[in-house]
Give the backbone structure.
Amino acid sequence: MSNSTWNLEPSLESAAQVQIKSQYELFIDGKWQAPLSNAYFDSVNPADESPLTKIAWANAADIDLAVSAARSAYDNSWSTMGGAARGKYLFRIARLMQEKAKELAVLETLDGGKPIRESRDIDIPLACNHFFYYAGWADKLQEAFAGQQISPLGVAAQIIPWNFPLLMLAWKVAPALACGNTVVLKPAETTSLTALKFAEICQEAGLPAGVVNIVTGYGDTGAALVAHPNVDKIAFTGSTAVGKQIQKACIGTSKKLTLELGGKSANIILEDAPIDQAVEGVINAIFFNQGHVCCAGSRLFVQESIADRVLEKLKFRLQSIYVGNPLDKNTDVGAVNSKKQLETIERYIQLGLEEGAEIYQPTCELPSSGYYCKPTLFMDVAQSARIVQEEIFGPVLTIQTFRTIEEVVQKANNSPYGLAAGIWTDKGARIFGVSQQLNAGVIWANTYNKFDPASPFGGYKESGFGREGGRHGLSAYLKFSN
Amino acid sequence: MLESISPLELNAIIANSPSIDQIGTLERIARIQARSIKGAAKLKGLRMALSMIDLTTLEGKDTPGKVRQLCYKAQHLHDQAADLPTVAAVCVYPTMVGVAKKALGNSGIKVASVSTAFPSGQAPFELKKLDTQYALDNGADEIDMVISRGRFLAGDYQFVYDEIAAIKALCGQARIKVIFETGELDSLDQVRRISDLAIAAGADFIKTSTGKIQPAATFPVVLTMLGAIKDHFDKTGQMIGMKPAGGISSSKLALQHLLMVKEVLGEAWLSNEWYRFGASSLANDLLMQYQKQQTGKYQSAAYFSID
């Protein structure tokens, strides 16, 4: 019996299970408040460019209200109630998030374009786990920092990116609340919906008013939040360019700052690596979340003796990557988050061609509307090429070969960034030998893009400073005095 | 009669056999298992799986009557359903080959015989050859031989290679499936090594298990073997068949295995020429799911014949 082609049918997760309101207000002091700015912006589904809703666009006056609410909640309830009580609220929030996991996953996918497989299996469960993890620390802070005098900082201004909306919210909000701070959080303008859903969860959990405030808007909203004099702490995850602006804005203030910025991480395959698993690791490293990952393994280094074989295997593997509707359970690479980002990625692909690199893209068809980009390999690239040096934040991989370990370590470190790296080898000693020489905050061995609440995450150099996750993540939200 | 492989060539096969990382293997499998196989794709997958079955009975208590019944079922899986494929082969002990051959007539369904002192392989080499010759003389189209696991685990690759090559030479036109009994091997590295060795020695198919030892055809083992087949194909252009056997008893598992074949090897392998399921209970679950897809209703197991 011959079977000419066997293709999977679309298997769509139902969007009907989420209720998206026609308009969203600001969440300030435990209530939904119309913005003093009277301004709203449109949010669209990047998968098909259909409008999803209108969202309030906060201005400086709105920010002032939110910071005041957070300050008042800090003074009157949250900082004084004790760790065990705070932990109880955090556990409650974590459980509610878990109960609503499906809804949150669909919402995340509709709003941001990421495949439902990822929001369902990675983003949302990890976000829940962060709340569970930091809930456990809330009444054990003194044990975490034995012998030190610790106290919360006050009001934390938190600005999060669009690539992992709810997960980045969890990374920021959970440790801040566990340590006794209150927060004003600004989600990215293209992905506000799960943060607004989180506001509803805070209400349902009975969290005291003002402990969590969600202010939506564009960069000007974030700038107003950073500039507010009553903010004690700023935590930002996003681009290095904006991170630098924020750092400048904090000069001469007592605001404590942590930045988690861009990356151009090296993924290094040594010749003794388990090759099929390394190829799969490359796929996970660069095509996870359309490559919108700050720690994406976007620079691949392959030892020359296995380079041809690795390339051959990578190209073959790309043929079974499903690119398309993010709500399809079989989709591996969904929609690029926004038109603007798609244009940026396309500009870099054009640049790569102009720089003379050899391009490879699979023969998949892209949907006719929405923002999509094929998984892209660039081979024969130079270390000095801009596509090798600059963060593209899309499904674009540059591939270089190397001969010696000394050479690959130099090239891997030859970057303004230092967020993550991957090493593939069968020899344990090499894992340690190479990783000790790499300037990267996170190094994965024989795997990539693995996250856990107990594991600290953060960068070197222009990838930022401060650590999120684990016990280290607590110290970003505490004042130490002896 | 047979020229043995040189130690140098043998060493090259073993040395070039790549290591396999368990964690990465599990991740690849998780991606495949997360896929959703629905609608027409499911229906087509179920039909494909049915057509790839080596319908098997390998019991000490097998009788000619039971084998004849199995052969009838092989040709008439479920006559209540129109237009079903037949299975690929009926798999029996050498003593039942003649019975099966006669019962299957010119149906096109192959007779596969286990051999070489199946399932343990614990017999002198001369007896293994006699065992195989007996099956061939009685008309076996395919020979499912077991390797000498003890020799392999002891590192006597020369012996294992020569044994496979000798049986292959004996088989002539009959296709040979080489059973590793992966449940007795220690690691995925070993599974990969024996895959490379067996392919080099002339295996037409590589097969996971006898069905007598657990675990049998697990996803990591099958993926590792598919990797060896893929690498051999990329290097030589020669296709090798794959037969997972034992442990694949549900439609869901069978469809996931087929999807793994499609993604790892490509669609060329999606035919019973190159892929088989060694199973006895799988057929009825496939039929049950097939009828569900066609009618929208699950039927009781009582509506499906056991043999």
In short: Chain A has two domains: 15-261+463-481, 266-452. Residues 116-137 of chain A form the longest helix (22 residues).
